[in-house]
Specification:
heterodimer; A: 5-stranded antiparallel sheet; 11 strands; B: mainly beta; 4-stranded antiparallel sheet; 0% helix; globular
């Protein structure tokens, strides 16, 4: 059965800290891994990763995929209170099934 | 404005009373999907649709039905709701299938079944 595991489940930091969120996956015929940010509403897209070792960057957020070790990390530098959210990762298989498999999320709290 | 809309946003109902949650997107997306989100369980896919008249089961389809008669609409139907279907529901769409492209999520529908 396909699964995605995120760690830690919860994280509390101070503004200015750097955080690393982890996502490991077991997805049959893996195609891509996606990261989302969910505040008190719908998830919003952050990154889609398909190739190993190529960092994707957006402002203070960056993410990278390791297809050999089957994991991805999401880094946030110089955290701000507005980064407080649940961060979700999802694995996507290719061919046949088009189901996305989501992890349970990491709840990040950034305190001033 | 490009968006996914869901209605209603909040619904309290009783066991066994049929209900429909509507989902509509204005981006001409082919792929649409329904998820439920429960504490401790994360987001789980209920049904998805690759295009008009093409639907398939996700991980938790029991107790739900969907239809895709038009490209923009993907309603979720609960024929006989039960309390274990109390959850937060999200509709999502993307131009291509879920893993090839960004998914845009609707605002969510919080359903309570008494």
């Amino acid at each position: 059965e396909d699964k995605v595991v995120q760690s830690p489940l919860s994280l509390v930091v101070h503004e200015g800290d750097t955080v690393t969120l982890n996502c490991s996956y077991e997805v049959t015929n893996f195609r891509s891994l996606l990261w989302y940010k969910q505040e008190k509403k719908a998830p919003t897209f952050l990154f889609m990763l398909t190739s190993s070792g190529i960092e994707k960057k957006s402002g203070r957020l960056s993410s990278i995929l390791d297809k050999k070790e089957l994991f991805s990390i999401l880094n946030i530098t110089a955290t701000q209170t507005g980064d407080s959210a649940v961060y979700l990762c999802a694995g996507a298989p290719q061919g046949g099934s088009e189901k996305l498999v989501f992890g349970k999320g990491t709840k990040l709290t950034v305190n001033p | 404005e490009a968006q996914v809309t869901q209605n209603p946003r909040y619904l309290i109902t009783v066991t066994g009373k049929k209900l429909t949650v509507t989902c509509s997107q204005n981006m001409n997306h082919e792929y649409m999907s329904w998820y439920r989100q429960d504490p401790g369980l994360g987001l789980r896919q209920i049904y998805y649709s690759m295009n008009v008249e093409v639907t398939d089961k996700g991980d938790v389809p029991e107790g739900y039905k969907v239809s895709r008669k038009e490209k923009r609409n993907f309603p979720l139907i609960l024929e006989s709701p039960s309390p274990n279907q109390t959850s937060l529901y999200f509709c999502a769409s993307s131009l291509l299938a879920g893993g090839k492209d960004t998914q845009y999520f609707g605002p969510g529908t919080r359903l309570t079944v008494l």
